[in-house]
Amino acid sequence: MFHMASQSKKLLLLLAGVFLGLVLSLGSGVFAQKGPREEALPWDDARLLAEVLERVRLEYVESVDDSVLIESAVRGMVTDLDPHSQFLNSAEYEEVRISTTGNYSGVGLEVHMENGVVVVVAAIEGTPAEKAGLSSGDIIVEIDGITLDEDNFSEAINHMRGEPGTNVVIAVLREPESEPIEYKLTRNNVQVKSVRHELLEDNYGYVRITHFSDTTPKDTRKAIRQLRHKSNNLLRGVVIDLRNNPGGVLDAAIDVSDEFLDEGLIMSASGRGPDASFSHMAHDGDILDGVQIVVLVNGGSASSSEIVAGALQDNDRATIVGVPTFGKGSVQTVMPLSNGRAIKLTTSRYFTPSGASIHGRGITPDVAIQSDPTLDLLASITAHQTDPGAALLQGDTQLRKALAVLKKGNIIKSAATRISVKTQ
Q1: What pLDDT shows up at residue 371?
Q2: In whole angstroms, what separates CA 287 from the centre of its chain?
Q3: Does 298 lie in the same domain as 405?
């Protein structure tokens, strides 16, 4: 017993010394920028972490690698700050990079899990999957001979990615065929599109933004140009659909807002860091030249989606319809670390042009269109498809109501006159 205790004490001192030395070495470079009021981590706090690491390392029922323990400690530390801060390992960081840049190497399929099966939402235009003939509604049953289920869904998605020029075999079920159809696809560079558009009835346009990436502003401008062309420059109004859009790149949301404004504040932010407090003003040049806008939102519209909705609402540029948004009024900064890892850290809280913080409250629509979970799911799936405008409207009650509001004109501008529209 005494010998073991002696070894434990040495290990404790070693771990505590290494950890405290790391804190001091990093702190000397970071805390100096914060001013004399910042202090290095106290010895007792460093010792606490070392004590826990020691106990787990020596007495946990199974052996755990030291690097796994350290990563778990870091992950817990960051995650415990708030629901949006996160430690990212190299694979998770790569996913963030793909979502922000919109570029990766793979086959170009958008899929989701539905009732325990993997369903193709869409094959991205111009990708290996689209050229091979895969389409919306196909059920993926195997990838390279591996049967898919709920337990290996994430691994399946990753397996479709890979180096350009490499092959992957995907087996799908498609009505009315009774046997799976196999496709041998060659991976290639894929551009994930965040914007889709359609011309609805009577020359009204529809723009669906699924998330905000670096390419979203450019794709939004392109969508508006094509809508104007399809309408022979007689475009009468546009519905911007932000339902179930979880957010994304802050700068993309600011640029998209700016596209529809001639002037005014877009948003402001406040934080502790030197670059965490800022504001953005709109520049002259509305790509719609004042054409009426309705923004369709729901409880899944969050973060960057709320920046766009808030900017257009507070600047009297659009009528917001739907149900209250999620209420994520904070900004996260992704900070690269060593060995391909990173942390996503909350660094600011943002405010709409009126000075309101929507954190925990969301944005209240000007016209409340009560949601139905079934309709929302249908709308989410339909919005990814390339159906003509009539079919899109037929399958989406909320969109039909939003179009009706758009046709009535810019009618709602104050909280005192908000109205409710029930879906039928």
Answers
A1: 57
A2: 25
A3: yes
Residues 368 and 395 in one domain: yes
Amino acid at 403: L
| Cα separations in angstroms, 98 against 189, 215, 223 | 12, 12, 22
Host H or E run for residue 110: strand 109-114
- Residue by residue, what is the 3-state secondary structure of 271-297? CCCCCCCEEEECCCCCCCCCCEEEEEE
Contact between 371 and 322 (Cβ < 8 Å): yes
- 314 in active site: yes
Residues 247-264 have pLDDT tens digits of 889 999 999 999 999 999
Who contacts 144 (Cβ-Cβ below 8 Å, separation ≥6)? 159, 168, 169
Are residue 284 and residue 384 in the same domain, yes or no? yes
pLDDT at position 2 is: 34
Last residue of a domain, one of 134, 167, 191: 191
Residue 115 identity: N
Last residue of one domain, picked from the residues 94, 115, 132: 94
Q: Are the beta carbons of 244 and 194 closer than 8 angstroms?
A: no
Q: Measured at the alpha carbon of residue 205, what is the angle toward residues 201 and 208, in degrees to the nearest 5? A: 125
Catalytic residue among 255, 258, 304, 328: 328
Between CA 147 and CA 156 the distance in angstroms is: 9
Q: Give the three-class secondary structure for 265.
A: strand
Euclidean distance between CA atoms 148 and 169, whole angstroms: 13
Catalytic residue among 241, 255, 258, 314: 314
Q: Which of 303, 304, 348, 380 is catalytic?
A: 303
State the Cα–Cα distance between residues 81 and 360, nearest whole angstrom: 16
390 token code pair = 């009539």
**Distance between alpha carbon 386 and the CA centroid of its chain, in Å?**
22
Number of domains in the chain: 3
d(CA 388, CA 197): 10
pLDDT recorded at residue 376: 45
3 state SS of 171:
strand
404 and 278 in a common domain:
yes
The CATH number given to whatever domain includes residue 119 is: 2.30.42.10
Q: For residues 81 and 132, state if they share a domain.
A: no
Question: SS3 letters for 54-75?
Answer: HHHHHHCCCCCCHHHHHHHHHH
Tell me the three state secondary structure of residue 348. strand
Shared domain for 262 and 368, answered yes or no, is yes
* Residues of the chain falling short of pLDDT 50: 1-37, 373, 376-387, 412-424
User: Under a CB-based contact definition with an 8 Å cutoff, are residues 237 and 204 in contact?
Assistant: yes
